[in-house]
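Hey L., structure's done. Input below.
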Amino acid sequence: MHSIPDRLSKARSRADVSGLGCTVWAFASLSVHGVVSAQTTTSPNRKKTVNVPAPAGIATLVAYVATIPAANLAVTHFGAVPVGFGYAAPAGVYMVGLALVLRDLARESAGRGAVLAAIAVGTILSYFLADPALAGASAAAFAVAETMDFVVYEPLRKRGLLIAMLASNAVGLLADSLLFLKLAFGSFEYLPGQILGKAWMTFAAIAVLALLRRRKQASA
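Output:
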């Protein structure tokens, strides 16, 4: 049986991403906007209101889906990377953590239906863009973790974005780490590093959002 570092070194992604210059700050700023309501006429005397994602919502959804090939590229080119406190994790850990953050932000800017569709697309991409040996584990971990993030986030939305994001991401990152490492490697050697790396992304996003909120309140 190959060790985790050996498996990582042999992983090869079939994805090619160019111009992936997304940052937590940029997409957190975009996601403070809501959903645009558009009116469509269904009959001469009746109108139906549908929700159309605003440009900010579309941008956040695109960034969310883009984290999947980015994570595969990171693993392909960098293998395992340090995440602090002496721990290491597969390089895709930061993109996976960012995916959890962007999922929550996309929920607010694009709506529930759009996010559920994006999770389905992300699951398919996770399967086809991962190394064949890791495809099943990658897709299963993504689908379960993102769905659990969604389920936890929804009832907490009314308590505030930061609270909901912190709680849902904690559940999502733990589920993703446990399931992926178990299915892909049969080992939890990288579990502390996986959790730590994803947690950094959550904390960074919460710090940025808190700063944006403070600035907005100060300028009001």
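The mean pLDDT is 81. Strands lie at 36-43, 46-52, 80-84, 87-90.

-- N.
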